[in-house]
Amino acid sequence: MNFFKYHGLGNDYIVLDPAEIGNSLTTDCIKAICHRNYGLGSDGILLGPIKSGKADFALRIFNPDGSEAEKSGNGLRIFSRYLNDIGLVGGDTFTIDTKGGVVKSQVNVAAGSVRVDMGKVGFKSGSIPVSGEDREVLNEYMIIGDRKVRYCAATIGNPHCIILEEDVTAKNVRYLGPVVENDRRFPSKVNVQLMEIIDKHNIHIEIWERGAGYTLASGSSSVAAAATAFRLGLCENEIVVHMQGGILDIKIDDNFFVSMTGPVTKIASGIISEEIYKI
Prior knowledge:
Layout: E1 2-8, E2 11-16, H1 18-21, H2 27-34, E3 45-50, E4 57-62, E5 68-69, H3 73-85, E6 94-98, E7 101-108, E8 113-120, E9 140-144, E10 147-155, E11 159-164, H4 170-181, E12 191-199, E13 202-209, E14 213-215, H5 219-231, E15 238-243, E16 246-252, E17 257-263, E18 265-271
């Protein structure tokens, strides 16, 4: 099985061609490929391109635990770069159909970056989803251990919980992340971001991804956190999101449609041996 590996700010994905692998991508296969010790090591798998009646291309995104994600900002930038590398797209805008909706993408080879129009961020509980009455999930509280935590929730096609914190560290998100991800108020589980406001145009986040764990960077998390900061009036509509892996540029319009721009790096390509599936 041929593979291509890329990373977006340290968030790495394996790209596989569905025409080559057919229906052989089982949950056990995904876990084996993504395993950091026994496989190639990855934050997920991008399966595409797939034919779509809604867009130029379709993409399926899998977490390392085998679950399927609705959308991934870094994954979409990586997939866009891959399409450019194999000659399926050039410098013009094209569309990608995901489980979380259709997005527009454009590869800027000269700048070494990809821009993705991620769609509209929503804060309504029913669409995220968050349990309870229908509402915008803003400035609510939950108790974790002996701590009272302030949070907001948002969707960009996948669910996010943004925790407003002063202690925005990898250690803290590793503690809070798995608890919040599996909290019963989030019936589809949730991606978690700890967010610190630096100034009107800069925020800092640490990320715990649903189905993947601690992550150096995340495009959809950056979009959700930036849109939340804008919705709360804490930032303007152009925001640089700072993460362990680097920065992403986010732009938000008045209707909360968001674009994201950032780099992609190709790591390797090669052939996956069938021996890894024996673990």
